[in-house]
Amino acid sequence: MTVRHFLSLMDCTTAELTSLLKRGIELKSLHRQGVIYEPLKNRVLAMIFEKASTRTRVSFEAGMIQLGGQAIFLSPRDTQLGRGEPIEDSARVLSSMCDAVMIRTFAHQTLETFAQYSQVPVINGLSDDLHPCQLLADMQTYLEHRGSIQGKTVAWIGDGNNMCNTFIQAAMQFDFQLKVACPEGYEPDQQFLAAAGDRVTLTRDPREAVAGAHLVNTDVWASMGQEDEAQARLKRFAPYQVTPELLDLADKSVLFMHCLPAHRGEEVSAELMDDPRSVVFDQAENRLHAQKALVEFLLVD
Ligand code: CP
Ligand code: NVA
User: Fold this and answer.
1) ipTM of this complex
2) Ligand 1 in reach of 56 Cβ (< 6 A)
3) In this model, does residue 260 exceed pLDDT 70?
4) In this structure, which topology does domain 134-283 adopt according to CATH?
5) What kind of fold does domain 9-131+287-299 have according to CATH?
6) Which residues sit in the known binding site for carbamoyl phosphate?
7) Which pTM was predicted?
8) What secondary structure does DSSP assign to 184-222, as a single string?
């Protein structure tokens, strides 16, 4: 039997993604009712973090415990991964002991290589290219607040980074229009843009992207691994801050999302974080439920 991985949203069909979102909502409701549901008893998720994390680590760890299993946190600092053991060997060893492996890394190729040599599902917990688990939570959040996102218009403001690339894939899978506003030289990856065709449009003007949008997103201006560029990026991105006034140009049903962590006063104004249109903390909470649905899908179904 072929092993299913979740390295990008394109590893699932639209129908599978849609049922994952619904299942996330169901699991959230069961959790809130205090129902004990432990289909993953004795199952183990290994989690490799080559970058920092709050939400991804805690949501996977708490989620595995709630489903009756366990998660093991691994970092290159205190494993042989940090001392040069090849990915291929690490994949064979870890996948012989664990039931799934989540990886947060730099180069997306690391995930691809690991998956190639793994006998168990590999989950992308963020790479330089993509952050698909975040989009599961984000799409679940939109569904909960506003219903289906199909046919809606979504704006991405700021850096054409891993989150932006993932929104491009989400536009293809969930059938919405995406308007990206970014400075020259900070566009999303050409391969994702090319795959999406006219579903995604690029502009330099945040106001143009936000006009009439049903969902507005932003993210940090310097991602993990770009710390040296942070100062230069602050200047370049200054016209791209998302504020309540910018959101006023959107559709009146608009929601504001940010995957967090946020830098108030940079990519998002302090007031917008607490604006009634902001659902950033619902997104964070939904990481738990969306990923419980994902590991259930990969390990139980
Ligand atoms: N949004 C997100 O992935 O957060 P962490 O970096 O805290 O995991
Ligand atoms: N673009 C950010 C997302 C963090 C969750 C980063 O890669 O650092």
Assistant:
1) 0.99
2) yes
3) yes
4) Rossmann fold (3.40.50)
5) Rossmann fold (3.40.50)
6) 53-56, 80, 104, 131-134, 259-260, 287
7) 0.98
8) TT-PPPHHHHHHHGGGEEEES-HHHHHTT-SEEEE--SS
